[in-house]
Design a protein that fits this description.
There is one protein chain. The protein has 220 residues and is mostly helical. 68% of the residues lie in helices and 0% in strands. α5 runs antiparallel to α6 and α5 runs parallel beside α8. The radius of gyration is 27 Å and the shape is globular.
């Protein structure tokens, strides 16, 4: 009987086992590392393309700038061309956000159209995007990647145009999704023409005329 009571007291005063700290599974950690590597590669490529516009960038240079092995490029993107497309549109989306800030500073719709057009044609990312579009033409496997990024650009620009129009009481002469697609198609097409050797420069283009956003003070 004494042994039973002693055993009971010993059990009741013992320290309960600690609860193990939850840890992320190996597959989750692997996915996180993969996403981080992809992001470093895209950002490093975008930086190199911005620093050396028009120049060829090698896989070795990209890997060195990102701090990874060269085979990580093909592992995560399939090819250097695919990585270049991702990097080009990352730069374009960053430039587009800067363009939005310029647009918000315009006092009237006419100035808005003029400033937006001038700023877009001067974007440093346009040459890289033109190369990405040309690559997608010659390599159909890149077309879905280009389309995905273009749709993101169109949606971002449409949301911005909607906020401007609603906030200022301005109007557009066509639906905003058509407005943004027409504007960007004109801008990117102009860059492609110039890169293909067409006579003239993008400065010869009336890109502001591709926008129909206006205010009540304007005729029509």
């Amino acid at each position: 009987m004494e042994k039973k009571r002693t055993g009971a007291r010993s059990t009741s005063t013992s320290t309960p086992p600690s609860t193990p700290t939850p840890t992320r599974s190996t597959p989750t950690r692997s996915r996180d590392r993969g996403r981080a590597t992809r992001r470093r590669l895209i950002e490093a490529t975008a930086r190199l393309c911005k620093e050396r516009p028009g120049a060829e960038v090698s896989v070795a240079e990209i890997a060195n700038a990102a701090g990874v092995f060269p085979n990580q490029v093909t592992y995560h993107f399939g090819s250097k061309d695919s990585l270049l497309v991702h990097a080009a549109f990352l730069g374009l989306l960053h430039d587009a956000r800067r363009i939005e800030r310029i647009g918000r500073q315009a006092p009237d719709a006419a100035t808005f159209r003029r400033n937006i057009a001038r700023a877009v044609l001067a974007m440093p990312s346009l040459p890289s995007v033109a190369r990405a579009l040309a690559a997608a033409i010659s390599k159909p496997e890149l077309a879905p990647v280009v389309d995905r990024h273009l749709q993101l650009l169109f949606r971002q620009s449409e949301r911005f145009a909607g906020r401007i129009v609603d906030g200022r009481g301005w109007k557009a002469r066509r639906p905003l999704d058509v407005e943004t697609r027409t504007f960007w198609s004109t801008a990117l097409g102009a860059v492609l023409l110039v890169r293909a050797g067409a006579h003239g420069t993008v400065a010869d283009l009336d890109l502001a005329g591709a926008l129909t956003i206006h205010d009540e003070a304007e005729p029509g």
